[in-house]
Amino acid sequence: MGWAHVSTHELVAGRYRLLEVVHEETNRVCWSGEDTGTGRPCLVTRIALPAEQAGDSARRATGRVVRTCETVERLCPGRIVPVVDATFADGALWTVTDWVGGVPLGDLLDRQGTFNYVRAARIGLELLAVLDAAHGEGITHGELSPGQVFVREDGSVAVTGFGLAGATLAPRLTAPSYASPEQARDERIGPAADLWTLGAILYTMVEGRPPFRDRGRPE
Fold it and tell me: What predicted TM-score, i.e. pTM, was given to this entire model?
């Protein structure tokens, strides 16, 4: 993933400074960052796009990402990481969110190992509440994974990534091990895809590994 090593000396959109990588997944890298306009910390995410999608459709996607996140945030205040900016640059879609102040669930599992069933259930129920609220408005996350779930020090969770699925024409699987069968087959997805992923995340929390370890490739 050579594209992950973006120069930290250049500002994204002429404003956001990249500091250090927080989390990496296929086609997706998150950095801790700084908004040079305000001096506030932020989370900057680069979503790689196929070359054929690096055009008008990707630019239009920026507005969709912001609007979708605003909608879900109103439904689930405090559980959605607000997107404050989205831009298209260097053949990629960049999103900027408020600083989360938590650790990606996948990284937390790597550090601490498996969770007991009480902790896993608590996180699962919080995620289910967010998904249920979004689904009630006809919004599917579509790219949920442990890298999109941040766990704060108090144990609460905050979800990122709403609005990315379907924002471009090309299918992108950021975490194949957590993708539903219809996602892997590049078929139309809906709430069932998110619930499949939630089940896979619950399994990972208590077993310490994804339910499908050999799913590094969609096929």
Answer: 0.84
